[in-house]
Amino acid sequence: MLKTLSRMLIAALALAGVIALAAGLWLIRGGISAKATPGGFETALARRARTLAIPRSARDMRNPVPLTPQILAEGREHFADHCAICHGNDGSGDTEVGRGLYPRAPDMRQPATQSLPDGELFYIIENGVRLTGMPAWASHEGTDENWNLVHFIRHLPKLTPAELEEMKTLNPKAPDERQEEEKRPASPGSGTDRPPAAPHQHKHGSD
Asked: Could you report the per-residue pLDDT of 170-205, keeping only the tens digit for each?
């Protein structure tokens, strides 16, 4: 019995050594640059490792928030303010920041994201993912904002042009951009004569 356990331990250590050596050679060959695009094998392996790292109890959670137009609007507003800088208003990931991440910000309209269980999406938003550009957006106590986001992520493939236009007004803007908008003359019936929207005030547990 002891011999069997010893052999298993040696085999496990040897495997860990081979993996560490392969990782080292990969880093030496490719450096630390984030400009390269991850290969198919690396992407599949990383996604599988992420799924395995998320507790089963978390993955099995169902969204407790009923889907209503108001909840979807809150998720849309939150996404435009917090997430669009990397993921884009449409969830494509085709932004300056999203294209520069390693791995790239995913196109969340595609099955790789849409097929994830509600609980897994919630866990990723709430806790972030190490060694990627995904931060942890811990919910403010007593709120369902991240579950609202899960609803909105499900809605991404069905976004309308009107929703995308609304989200542009909700995206964070630098002070000079706000000043430029305020100086811009309003055209009749355009809706631009309304006062600029106040900065979004959602808070998270880490705020």
From this structure: 999 888 776 776 777 765 555 445 455 555 555 555
Backbone angles phi, psi at 204, to 5 degrees: -125, 165
What is the C-alpha separation between 113 and 132, in angstroms, rounded? Answer: 16
Q: What backbone phi and psi angles, to 5 degrees, belong to 17?
A: -65, -40
d(CA 82, CA 200): 9
Q: What is the C-alpha separation between 113 and 130, in angstroms, rounded?
A: 18
Cβ–Cβ under 8 Å, residues 137 and 146: yes
Q: How far apart are CA 86 and CA 100, in angstroms?
A: 9
Query: How many angstroms from the chain centroid is the CA of residue 73?
Result: 18
pTM of the model: 0.74
For 82, 107, 118, 131, the CA distances from 61, given in Å and listed in that order, are 23, 23, 7, 25
3-state secondary structure 79-98: HHHHCHHHHCCCCCCCCHHH
Q: pLDDT digit string (tens) for 8-55?
A: 778 778 777 777 776 666 566 667 778 888 888 888 888 889 999 999
